[in-house]
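In the design runs reported in the main text, the only information available to the sequence generator was the tokenized backbone. The following block is the verbatim input for one such run; it is reproduced so that readers can re-run the procedure and compare outputs position by position.
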């Protein structure tokens, strides 16, 4: 009997024993194409020599030094590299071990920023419905996925949720994309006014929504308006790029595509690419300065922040992307994958929408294409899709709809940036067989 407490108590997953490029291999020798990078983690494949070597070298040189006493060369170099490529105004990097830690730290930094500015009444966080920002209590409170929150709700801080920018489901007939985006953004201003502008500290959103909606990019103009609204009321804009950042959407930082400047930016997953657990919260010089000139101490911190080996891995991952122009490759292969998905499933009666950016693509399944009616949750389409695709040798990321009847079952694809066109063709083949078997 295994003593591991697994994610799913009644499932006995195979044992992964090796990684080879875009593939994972189990103990029976079966190969699985990693079509979702786990959960958008393994962006440069599973056997990158440069990253492996960087980790080995760092362990030999220095395995650990607590940030209460030291900084380290890989952490300094990685912070420099991230800031050099980050949106304007971002100046500081606070390293953590993963995505939930990054969003949790962002919420606390927003709060501390305002207490240090002498605005302690600013305590409200606004986020969006059908969102996910992590599983620790603060991050879970920020998330707007009711199913995940339900049983923990007595433990969660009060967060307001407004509708996301989700054109497929929410745009009205005759409404232009632009007008829809402005309407979706207006929900934020309305909520700020309802709460009282001087009580709101921050708005948190994913630039391209990953797990909860399935690779949904914003419509043009949405984030420009969001930025304006935040600026108008002095509300901090926190962008959660834990899943969509680090090259995944064809830009190192996803928000660069929409030209939006966040005050706080969270990254993780692709930063360590699965080689090490690492995430980061980046913030503006203004926020940093306020803390620095105030108490001088961000009242947060975990033992493993700024871990040298994790930072060395992150440095090698980002350098690998930049040196080999992998981000341009994401744009090209992403366009290829999108086209293949459209030509194979564009007319499928149960595929309502195919969307995404870069190598971050989603398919939404519907019972009725014309009315966009989601499948009955009892059909458990996403669950069966995951199982069948896995049997067929494909790791993908299906998610059930949000059970409020608004979001259908969908599957998220986030293959490694190094995937060839032939490998992406293979993904589409397996998706097609899986759809035939599931629906
Ligand atoms: N934020 C987003 C947008 C995510 O997709 C995730 C994880 O899927 C998280 C935060 C939490 O990251 P982690 O699982 O590394 O804690």
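Verbatim output:
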């Amino acid at each position: 009997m295994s003593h591991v407490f697994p994610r799913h108590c009644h499932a006995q997953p195979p044992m992964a024993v090796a990684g080879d490029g875009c593939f994972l291999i189990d103990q029976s020798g079966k190969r699985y194409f990693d079509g979702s990078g786990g959960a958008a983690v393994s962006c440069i494949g599973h056997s990158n020599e440069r990253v492996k070597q960087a980790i080995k070298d760092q362990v030999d040189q220095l395995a650990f030094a607590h940030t209460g006493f030291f900084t380290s060369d890989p952490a300094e170099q990685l912070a420099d590299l991230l800031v050099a490529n980050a949106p304007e105004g971002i100046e500081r990097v606070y390293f953590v071990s993963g995505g939930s830690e990054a969003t949790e730290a962002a919420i606390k930094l927003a709060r501390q920023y305002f207490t240090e500015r002498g605005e302690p009444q600013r305590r409200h966080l606004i986020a969006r419905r059908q969102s996910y920002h992590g599983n620790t209590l603060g991050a879970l409170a920020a998330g707007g996925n009711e199913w995940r929150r339900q049983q923990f709700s007595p433990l969660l801080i009060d967060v307001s949720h407004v509708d996301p920018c989700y054109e497929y489901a929410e745009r009205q007939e005759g409404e232009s994309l632009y007008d829809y985006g402005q309407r979706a953004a207006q929900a934020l201003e309305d909520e700020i006014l309802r709460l009282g502008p001087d009580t709101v500290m921050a708005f948190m959103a994913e630039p391209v929504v990953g797990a909860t909606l399935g690779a949904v990019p914003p419509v043009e103009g949405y984030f420009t308006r969001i930025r304006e609204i935040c600026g108008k009321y002095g509300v901090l804009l926190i962008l959660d790029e834990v899943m969509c950042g680090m090259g995944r959407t064809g830009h190192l930082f996803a928000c660069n595509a929409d030209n939006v400047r966040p005050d706080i930016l969270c990254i993780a997953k692709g930063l360590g690419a699965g080689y090490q657990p690492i995430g980061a919260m980046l913030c503006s010089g203004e926020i940093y300065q306020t803390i620095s000139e105030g108490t001088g101490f961000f009242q947060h911190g975990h033992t493993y922040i700024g871990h040298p080996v994790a930072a060395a891995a992150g440095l090698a991952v980002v350098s690998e992307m930049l040196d080999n122009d992998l981000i341009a490759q994401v744009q090209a292969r992403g366009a290829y994958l999108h086209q293949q998905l459209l030509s194979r499933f564009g007319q499928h009666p149960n595929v309502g929408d195919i969307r995404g950016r870069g190598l971050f693509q989603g398919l939404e399944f519907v019972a009725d294409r014309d009315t966009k009616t989601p499948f009955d949750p009892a059909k458990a389409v996403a669950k069966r899709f995951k199982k069948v695709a896995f049997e067929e040798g494909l790791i993908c990321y299906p998610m059930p709809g949000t059970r409020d009847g608004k979001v259908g079952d969908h599957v998220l694809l986030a293959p490694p940036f190094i995937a060839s066109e032939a490998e992406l063709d293979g993904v589409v083949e397996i998706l097609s067989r899986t759809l035939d078997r599931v629906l």
